[in-house]
Amino acid sequence: MADLLADSATFISRSKTFSRASAIFGIVVGLSVLAGWLFDIARLKSIYGLITMKPNAALGLILIGVALLAVKASDQNSYRILGQVCAASAALMGVLILSQHVFGWNLGIDQLLFSEAPGALATTSPGRVGITASSCFMLYGASLLLLYQRRAISLAQILSMVAGFWALLAVIGYTYQAEELFGIARYTGIALPTAVALFVLCLGILSACVDEGILSIFCDGSAAGVMARRLAVVGIIVPLVLGLLCLIGQRAGHFDLGFGTALLVSTIILTFLLAIWRVAIKLKQVEQERARSEVVAARGAERLTRLAALIDLSYEPIFVWDLDKGIIEWNKGCEQLYGYKGSEAKGRRSHELLKTKFPTSLETFQMNLERDGHWSGELRHITRDGREVVVESRHQLLESSFQKLVLETNRNITERKQAEQERERSLLREHALRVEAERAARSKDEFLATVSHELRTPLNAILGWATMLRKSRIDEAMATHGLEVIERNARAQAELVEDLLDVSRIISGNLRLDVKPIALTSVIKAAMDSVQPAADAKEIQLQIIIDPTADNIRGDAARLQQVVWNLLSNSIKFTPKGGHVSVKVERNDCMAELTVTDTGAGIPREFLPFVFDRFKQADGSITRKHAGLGLGLAIARHLTELHGGTIEAHSEGEGLGAAFKASLPLRIAATETALTDSVNSVSLADASLAESPNLRGIRILVVDDDGDTREMLRTILQEFGADVTTASSARVAMDLLPTWKPNVLVSDIGMPEEDGYVLIKKVRGLSSEEGGDLPAIALTGYVGVEERMRALEAGYQMFVPKPLDVGELAITIVSLVGPSVEKIRVGSRHSK
Known about the structure:
Blueprint: H1 2-39, H2 42-45, H3 55-70, H4 77-103, H5 131-149, H6 153-176, H7 192-208, H8 223-252, H9 257-313, E1 318-322, E2 326-330, H10 332-338, H11 342-345, H12 350-353, H13 362-372, E3 374-382, E4 388-398, E5 405-412, H14 414-471, H15 476-508, E6 516-519, H16 520-537, E7 541-546, E8 552-555, H17 557-574, E9 580-588, E10 591-598, H18 632-642, E11 646-650, E12 658-665, H19 684-690, E13 699-703, H20 707-719, E14 723-727, H21 730-740, E15 744-748, H22 756-764, E16 776-780, H23 785-794, E17 798-801, H24 806-817, H25 821-831
Parallel strand pairs: 7-9, 13-14, 13-15, 15-16, 16-17
Antiparallel strand pairs: 1-2, 1-5, 3-4, 4-5, 6-8, 9-10, 10-12, 11-12
Helix pairs in contact: 1-3, 1-7, 3-4, 3-5, 3-7, 4-5, 5-6, 5-7, 6-7, 8-9, 14-15, 15-18, 16-17, 17-18, 21-22
């Protein structure tokens, strides 16, 4: 059976090759004849006999040859378009020439290429192609167009065979000297090269699609296909050859017509009997081969049945798949692992069903499997529910006469791989922790060495001058200088100790702030006064620019002065002699932004992310130019964050200076009005408190879930003259609003069930008449920048942090009510 399939494949391959060869033959014949007309070479115009091939016939052969060459060029669209154009042109040319013969008109196309003298043999008009050739061009062109469209293949083959038979008649006529078949101008006139080329092109067209349509029987691997292939050749060639031999014998006088005919018939019978005998032998061999194949197939089926039973009994995922057709066996283990039932999996390709991830490409994997007969390794599959599983897979190619079967056994090792990956991650984490611990140990050693150096350096000067003052006799000027040195180094040592204590408090969480309303100007000036001697010593110019609207904040004045002092000290330390350091304070929405800019050494880009880390210095070597523990900026960052602010550093690089910007929340009670004297003025809060704000006639609704806080706020606000009502929840507050109609809402943010954000959302959802525009102040212990912004965005106009400064709250209420205070008081008197 395999031999028959091989014979069929070989026949198809050879037919395709013959098709291309016949196309080239037609093109060569056409070009040769055109060359004969071009150079007037009679031998090329008529290779045999006196009938010449017309130029249009030569052109038609070239068009049909090109169209036949391109008919199988499915992957090259431009060739196919060219082929279709040539086929259509040949068909059109045949139709036009044939119409001239039928209707007797002259379209002027016969001598477009070359001129021919009148009186040419077997020609109705100079240069005109005969009926036989024009009909063949029309039928061949139509046949090729059908092949290009992949439609009516059988019809295309029939059209080609009709035209080919007509051309064959002319060839037989030339062979047997039957002039009626090729020499009658009006009906059969055709040159021998034209007839031969047309017949060869017929065979080429049929060979191009020999495995399709009515000719597919010739490619069949069955006994019928064998018989068709063997008898077709005998049926065509033997009668032609024997007839020619009989005719030659008669013309030579070796025998008369009767004897010759009897000899011809006898030979044909004998030949066909031999052909039939050979075909019968071949058919017998085919049947024997088929019987053996069926036995092998039965054994293979039995083997597969036993194998399928064994596979189904296994708990491991095992399935069998065909390289060409997909999965054919799927056991219970596969159903449990992958989630697909056998009916769902069978017939589908395993790599598509399971979305297999191969270690190589699919083509390389299958090529290696077919070459070696087996494969083993790890694969990744996707189950029906989308999980990825890792399997230890083995593939074994099974021997079969008709199929390429693969037995695939898989073992789920997903948990093992996950454990291995987790172990690898643990090792990586352990390594990272070890590296971090080693780095921390090195940092600790470096820090202790730095602390030792920084503490010992001033001690050296102190001890040295103390010894000189006690033992040596020195003049008064030298003694005064020595005392100054001792005092300066003692203060430096005290600052180092204080920095270390501050870092300890920050780490342990014991650093406390004394928060109150302050003027940022006074804090900055105090810090600048402290660093002015150091700036003067290096001839560094200090500049301050303050926006009056950003002067009022809440904070710990001493700690904020420490922040500003650390930033200024850092800038002065790293700014060369004659440099410039500026302090700028400006308002950005609800934040005061303090920026310290210098023209100093700058910060390397790679160190910029670590500039606020504790004990970090860009140059930590013993050869560094600048002393210090690397704590100043870290302390500045922590103190700024404790005040609800942020701090950041910016530098274009080494030698290009640096800028440090600290953002601090403004005191919301501050007005937007610019102060008349930004440098020497006191804060608005302090001035307002001194004036003891008057809340007489203002109706205030206080909402807080804590009873003590409600009572405290009621009592104190009433002392300021306010009319106060309290509510324990957002729901109670919403019930009071329509009836009591307050002038101001003071609400806590953190309350059970419905917090202050829900309350203000409900209030803002009311109409203006119902109190939707009611001024509102938020109270909260959350003092971060994000919490402040969230409260203002939710609908509160003011934000007061806990613990409360009641005087500040009263000022906030007055500033929030604003110009309408007197109207409220008048309305209150009238209502009474």
